[in-house]
Amino acid sequence: MAVRIAALGLLGALVAAPGLWLEHPWLTSLSIFGDWPRVAAPWDRVILGLIGALALAVAVLPRRAALSGSLLALLLARGAWDLVLWQPYFLQYAFFLGVGAWCARRPDALAGGVAALRFAMIGIYVWSGFSKLHLTFFEDGLYTFWGPEWFDLALSVRRPMGFAAALIELALGLALIRPQWRRWGRWGLLGMHVFLLVMLGPLVRGFNPVVWPWNLAMIALLLVLFRGEGERFPARELVRWRGRPLTWVAMILFAVGPALSYFGAWSTYLSFRLYAYRYDSGFIVALDEDARQALPPDVAAAFATEGVKGAPYLDIFYWSEGEIGAFLPGDALAYRRVAERILRATGGRGRLVFVLKAPPTIDSRERVQTEHPWVDGGWK
Q: Can you give the pTM of this predicted structure?
């Protein structure tokens, strides 16, 4: 059932943000291996349709080992072709599909597979809560859900509320580990997802629709994996690794990987930092009018009047959400690829700079900023 829910969640993501999977002149076909050929029309729509059809088949058909494996292979190939797909739910759904394909062919691995899925869920909540334990989130983080009125509150109110939100999510994730606390953790997280759906949904903010089906999928997965027998299983089952390769994979993807992200060795976005304000930010800054005039019209129209370096600038992260229906993964490599593609289109005219800001530190809002001028068709 968990694999079916993951397939339906993926299908919902395709419907909510098809632009994430379709050709965009600046924001998609950002291969991790460099300048691969772009996935242009009509092949982008063909692949999108095939992924959707396979996801629906996995969700509704009884025999789905080959279907899950085929869908997983297609997702991994498409993800290697495009960094923009490295969304947090992408990793989760891919792992769930892999577990489903493995267990369908090896029925004796089912218990280990279910334990691995539970480990993944706990890892998502724990790392998501942990990533929010820093000053910038305490002061600004709830703006995502509250809206502009959040900044009308005094810092003396915002800081404890932001701290409480991060700590509660972390504590609820940890509560899923112990049988004695699991029911409270499950109900608390169900309430959190309902709150997120209400605040981000069409009735309030109408913000970032690609995460709406993810929240629905997480609600269903909490009920399937942590209710009934899932409420009573011993905690040691989560880390029982002998003869359970899926446990090893879960540990790498949902425990070790996110930890490595704090040392720059793993993607921040695949470490479940969505809305945590703890990822890289990328900007293109036009230092003179010639630069502004040289930009492609659709990009120039999105520039803010002034801010970064006191000049007109484009915040790539927030611009991407309006263009493709989802945020560009907050990693330096993705920003640099987008910036390079846009700056090449200017023909080297004007003074343009790509500015990269590292994630803020835990106890201050300061961010290390590096500048990369674009001169004569290349980085200076």
A: 0.91
